[in-house]
Amino acid sequence: MKTVIGIDLGTSTTEAAIYRNGIVEMILNLEEEIITPSAIGIDDKGKWVVGKRAMSQLILSPQNTAIEVKRKIGTDSRISIGGKNYTPVELSAKLLEYVRTYASEYLGEDIRNAVISVPAYFNETQRQETIEAGTKAGFKVERILNEPTAAALSYGLAHMDEESHILVYDLGGGTFDVTLLEMFGGVLEVKASAGDNQLGGKDFDEAIMNSLIKDFQKKHGVDLRQQRQAMVKLKEEAEQCKKTLSKEDSYRILIPAIAKVGGHPVELDTTITRKDFEALVRPLVERTHKPIDVVLSDSGITANKLDRIILVGGSTRMPMIAADIEAYLGKAPDSAVNPDYAVSEGAAIQAAIIAGLIDPSEGLVMTDVNPYSLGVQCIKDGNPDYFSVIIPRNVTIPASKTQRYYTNYPGQTEVEVGIYQGESSTASRNHFLGDFHLSEIPANYSEVESIDITFSYNLNGMLDVTATVVSTGKNAKLSINMQNQENGPEIPDEEEEAHVSYSNWKDSPISGDYRAVIRRAERILKRLDEDDDERDEIESLLNDLKAAIANEDADEADDLEDDLVDLLESLED
Ligand SMILES: Nc1ncnc2c1ncn2[C@@H]1O[C@H](COP(=O)(O)OP(=O)(O)OP(=O)(O)O)[C@@H](O)[C@H]1O
Ligand SMILES: [Mg+2]
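Above are the sequence and the adenosine-5'-triphosphate SMILES. Below is the predicted complex in structure-token form.
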């Protein structure tokens, strides 16, 4: 039987756990510690260092060290280490590789299978990139699990016979998630999830830093932001200050020789009280209210029906968090789970269910929700970019829904079905998931022929989209992998080399401006016959355009885009 571990890949810290001998056990890293800082670096000998060792070189060589990489996952950002740029996926993979090494060491076998948790509010790209990082690290990622669901699983295993509504409030280092679950007879049902991908302890540190920087500038006329070393020191002190204020009433920040003013070293010396701090970060705490409201209203449960509020994530140690929750919801949270371990413990429980060690028929069956609305792009009141929702957000999955659409103009015989995820009423502002083509619609007056579009979202994370011409039954489909499943084929290195000049166009900061036209061209290419004369012309323009994007040459790309659009339009006429 394969051993599957659970991993909480956090913004600030990473933990791994295993279910064995009937209990969940936290896995110790090579330093014999449970908590591994999510830091990656290159040491002075040019070797990769991860965790505590990377963290401890952060102050001395910030240019060789990266932290809070998870914040960047799913974006085109590059992170510089030792003068070289890395993708968030590459660096997350280094972190996961370390987890794989220490878990293998701890368990005495080569560990290759894992469940990795992500914030419930991660979008599809962020999820896919997490899987990619796991694969790069040598894992088969068995499942991507939502962090609050994991925390609830960890709670649920010990309280299986309870019947209750549970609110999981997870404020970590970089993300905020809130999830409402219902538990009865060992079934744990996720009712709704919401959150903020860009809110966490990091922002509380930054609030302190910003206030110190402002004061320093006022006093000495020096902008500390320009000095990397000073900023790293400031960040460390700000976090220490924040953590100390969770227990004590004040904290003195003293950094000798933080900068030079007029050639002389100047210190930073200031005392921050808990009251000062709480006033400073009040707006951040208030940003948690909206997701809480969304979760309550989406699940149709009022605050007074909540039986338990579970706190997860290191940032919930700030006393103002529990106080704010109690003031806002009229109920105090309880400390039923370990806020640092709960997510990885839950991931390990999910891993045990997958490995067959826990029989879900005896309890702990889980249902989940889709955190974002799913739908298609269509024309509404003349707007060609309207987002028509088919499965609304926070619907329990599995879910299947059908909507009927009509042709737009007389003689229309085909439609493009563009599938998106998100909450904007403008389709292209949402997250694009895929598209396909439905043809052979009988030519008719406009709005006579109807097309049914069905979305089926199953628990394995597959979204099947089918479009059917109602009058003839002719249909077309697309399946989108919304979670992991089998990890895709590895691309051999040589092939990767050959494509490199333009295949990395998507990583360019200007790529967003051209995605629409590239998709359009690729769609048309698919439709053209192999020996079509225009094919070569489109392909060559398309490749030139991608190369220009990859080289970040916007002028060249704009010219090529114009040429391409002219050509496509001549074909579509
Ligand atoms: N005693 C404390 N008081 C206040 N904040 C704390 C305390 N201990 C830890 N933190 C903060 O908790 C955060 C880390 O929490 P945690 O390890 O749960 O996050 P994570 O899982 O890495 O992040 P995420 O879940 O957002 O990806 C850091 O911002 C840290 O400063
Ligand atoms: Mg976390």
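DSSP finds 14 helices and 27 strands in the chain.
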